[in-house]
Amino acid sequence: MSHAPREPRVTIPESEISWRFSRSGGPGGQHVNTSDTRVELIWSLESTQALTREQRERALTALRSRLVDGRITVVSSQYRSQLRNRDAARVRLEQLVARAIVPPRPRRATKPSRGSQVRRLDAKKRRGDLKRGRGGGWD
Question: Which of 68, 89, 94, 133 has the most CB atoms around it within 10 Å of its CB?
Answer without folding.
Answer: 89
